[in-house]
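Section 3.1: Structural characterization of target chains.
Under the original work plan, the team committed to producing a structural model for every single-chain target entering the pipeline before any wet-lab resources were allocated. The record below documents one such target. The sequence was received from the expression subgroup and is listed exactly as submitted; it comprises 316 residues.
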Amino acid sequence: MSFPAPTVNNRADSTEPRVPSPQEKYGSLPSNAAMTIEVEDWFHDDLLSRAVEPGSWDTLELRVDRAADRMLTQMAHHGAASTCFILGWCAEKKPALVKRIAAAGHEIACHGYGHLPVSVLKPHEFKRDAERAKKLLEDLTGMPVRGYRAPAFSITDWAIDVLQSLGFEYDSSTFARPARIHNANLRGLSDGAPVVQLRKGFHEIGVSCGSFLGRCTPWSGGYLRLSPYLFFRAGVKKTLRAAGPFVFAIRSWETDHGQPRVAGLKRSHAFRHYVNLARGERGFNNLLRDFNWTTLGDLLARSKPDGPPTQSPSAA
């Protein structure tokens, strides 16, 4: 089954309900909420890594373009922009998808090539992996790739210097507040600060966190699937009303409820991967409807001292 490239129907005689543009919904206020999507396939989740070896990836059903194209269509419908951290392996298998994402105006960023945690790689191996993916994405789009997100948020301090040497300008592999998932010990990182300059000309942009069951947790796709939407939306509003910014992270497969089920997983891993996948797609669409979304590149440009002042849009 194939999906068309995302388009926005602006015809006056369209029978579809008209969705207000971001300018109409929010006036001249810049968005203070950034949408980030890790474009990877269902079998790239680290929770499945023990049951699905990388050597078997070529034998598995590829669904990344199905999920990503639906997300592109939804974002076009709502006038939303995003930063897409694309896995190099997927870009190599689905180059037309990368071009569709770029053509739709979304920021192309790098998720590495082989989806190996940075912590298991030596510096030269990590450099080779990141450089391969960056070059592939730049060759496909003709645009520089400025952002990086490590698989499983596994960034390390030495990797920052490698990324900067390759021409990256920011990383987004940490969380803006103390969370259940441990932040890497990055020099210059400050808990609670969403955008931090780690090196001259290189920034870290943390994914936002919220309170879930009394614990500070990443306010991302997994908790969007797990919690009631109105509760999740209230957390986004709280961050924006506190002057934000809010950075949301979701993996493309988290909206694909038709993906295959893998046998032999630990019960906790199966639950965390498969729980409420149908709710993930609905929640994603609701977030697009309720908030005005921009890219990390835009957020970073406006957060710099010489950038224009940021303002938080009124939550829907």
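The chain is about 35% helix and 15% strand.
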